[in-house]
Amino acid sequence: MAVKLAIFDLDGTLVNTIEDVCDCFNQALENCGHPRVDDGVIAALVGKPLPVIVRGLLPEGISDDEVDAIAGEYRRVYGSSAKPNTKPYPGIPEMLAHLQAEGVRLAVNSNKPHEAAVEVVNRMFPKLDMDVVGFGAVATTKPDPAGANLLMERAGVIPADTVYVGDTVVDVDTADAAGVRCVLVTWGQGTPELRDDSRIWVVAEDAVDLLNLFLHRD
């Protein structure tokens, strides 16, 4: 399989961030005078644009100004958090290192604010060379393909040379919009029925499976 660029989603694909993300959302809600919500509610929204997540945690009819205030507070809380529970999924660092050694360029496309995405990638994968695009590096969030398109442009590759790896329908939509093949991983925040989406090129069950798909599938 001739893959020159592998674009990965971050949360739920490369890194398990969900516990810290939920803690920070609930802290932001409390700081803005709102009650905490169940972690499962937050987890079901992760991967969507930040304002969409915030609206999903609040009663209907909340003002845009309040959504913006909570989103800003979340960015502040998450940015200052030590993120003690964030860690790569099993086998991911080794899989990425193997791909890089094989000459595959590595990239991350996240809906996190760009600075937060860069910080997590640099802390989790300090020995790897990974191009990162988060919200702010481009003006739109996934599933708009602007981030994926920018990563392909910077790598000097075309969609046929690229594979997009993610765990949710947002990632499938992004890959589809960018015209690239999509690999769905099963260990993140996606739902079981997503496996049946006809736009998915292949499903990976773990990091070893994912590596084998890159190296051995036509």
Topology diagram in text:
Elements: E1 5-8, E2 15-16, H1 18-31, H2 39-45, H3 50-56, H4 64-80, E3 87-88, H5 92-101, E4 105-113, H6 114-124, E5 130-135, H7 146-155, E6 162-166, H8 169-178, E7 181-185, E8 202-204, H9 207-216
Parallel strand pairs: 1-4, 1-6, 4-5, 6-7, 7-8
Antiparallel strand pairs: 2-3
Helix pairs in contact: 1-4, 3-4, 5-9
Give structural notes.
The chain is of the alpha/beta class. It has two domains: 143 residues, Rossmann fold (3-Layer(aba) Sandwich), CATH 3.40.50; 63 residues, Putative phosphatase, domain 2 (DNA polymerase, domain 1, Orthogonal Bundle), CATH 1.10.150.240. The chain contains nine helices and eight strands. A six-stranded parallel beta sheet has the order 5-4-1-6-7-8, sandwiched between helices. Strands 2-3 form a two-stranded antiparallel sheet. Helix 1 packs across helix 4, helix 3 crosses helix 4 and helix 5 packs parallel to helix 9. The chain starts with a strand and ends with a helix. The mean pLDDT is 95.
**CATH class type of the largest domain:** Alpha Beta
Distance between the termini: 4 Å
- Largest β sheet strand count, sense and barrel closure: 6 strands, parallel
Number of domains: 2
* Mean pLDDT reading: 95
Question: How many whole angstroms does the radius of gyration measure?
Answer: 17 Å
Give the full name of the CATH homologous superfamily of the largest domain: HAD superfamily/HAD-like
Strand order of the largest sheet: 5-4-1-6-7-8
Q: Multimeric state of these chains?
A: single chain
Principal-axis shape equals globular
Estimate the strand proportion: 15-25%
CATH architecture of the largest domain: 3-Layer(aba) Sandwich
Order of helices and strands: EEHHHHEHEHEHEHEEH
Provide the structure class: alpha/beta
CATH topology call of the largest domain: Rossmann fold
Q: State the helix count.
A: 9
Q: How much helical structure, as a percent, in the residues?
A: 40-55%
